[in-house]
Amino acid sequence: MILVFAAVGGLGCAVQVAADEQASVRGSRPNFIFLLLDDAGWTDTGAYGGRMLTPHLDRLAADGIAFTDAHSPAPNCSPSRAGILTGRIPARTGIYSYLPVAHPMHLRAEEITVADLAVQAGYRTGLFGKWHLSDLDNADQPGPLDQGFEVSFATSNNAAPSHRDPVNFRRNGQAVGKIEGYSCQILVDETIDWLDSIGAGQEDAAPFLACVWFHEPHTPIASPPELVQACLERHPELTQRQAEYLANIENVDRAVGRLLDWLDQRDLARDTVVWFTSDNGPLNAFSKGDLRGLKSHVWEGGHRVPAIVRWTGRIQPGMWCSVPVSGIDFLPTFCELVGVQVPADRTIDGVSQVPLWLGREDDFHRATPLYWYFYRLNPSLAMRDGDWCIVAHTDDADRPKAHPLLREDMPRVLQAKPVRWQLFHLGRDRGQTIDLADDEPQQLERMKRQLDKLHAEVLSEGVRWDIPESYQSRANRRVWDSE
Ligand SMILES: [Ca+2]
Known about the structure:
four-stranded antiparallel β-sheet, 20 strands, 17% strand, binds calcium ion
């Protein structure tokens, strides 16, 4: 057996593995549970240095691989979810921003989702929680059941009126009314019921893909009072609001713990990939660590997120990996493990993370750079090349914009060109405090050309939505600077 050791420090994953392990996992058809938080920041678990108590999520990290340079596909809910499900840069799918109520933008039926591929491969598929890729009240838009999910227990956007006693869940499209309890616990109850109903863990049961997409810790927050009180006692420096926030994630951790216990009880831990991350950066400054920027920003704080993958018996426990990865890697990773082809009739931007999971960093190659575009915020563009990160405004930066995507935005979103570049070396300056654009002209020029090309190519594929004029009258416009 050949043993490979990847060096710690700089880019890399510290691990010792068998070199032939990678071939053996191809086509292994594990179950998948994709746990997604909504608006959780980079440091919002104990494993990543947060002040909340998250023993179950920390256990996932201790038993699997945790990424220090992981990213959401976008700094904002809906585009990020589109990227996770399709493996594509979100703007390619036509999702440029969050989906407001009764807006025409949605994930189109012609997109191929990881759930579509899973069904074709004989998987059972379920979507539980916040969807935010169509309006579930609009039967003309494709919902989860049209995008490869066999069952859905979902809300269009946030749990309403809050995480406590939500009233807006739909089960397979049908409104279910008020449910008592907290959203994260309700989701896990539903997930476990479904897994039991499909015989998961029984001999000859089909493998499953469960997307468990929590509403927490997106506002409006509601947390169990005993957890809030315990946070305040442990951390008297916290405000009530901060304690509510920490307790909110602790409540998710309890829910995740119940799901992990269920896997253990069914002896499924070894057969199940558990992938945990967040859909974008936080609204709270105390959740971003030393990163620059918050949710919606293309600065690191907008999209660098926690990411942990556990696959018991396959991934060496306790690995920390500093290679840049993204949620758009989920679909190609799934394809490799299940042994199905990545869709060949469209551009897939993500890449399988399996080599990193197995400590074979030399076999990990990202063809398309990680790239973020959010037309509403200034700056609007970011792109990675190893440790280097270029950040740019667009020539549309000074135009006032509303919170929702408006009719007047549509042509501009697809025409905006990069201008006013900044350059950062994230290996030395993760907080993006020192602009090296003047000091590194060759690196800057190289990345400018690369960004110009990729941005133009992505937008050439973008969808032009026919947005009603009625949105014009509701929305105040302003210039959204995130400096
Ligand atoms: Ca979000």
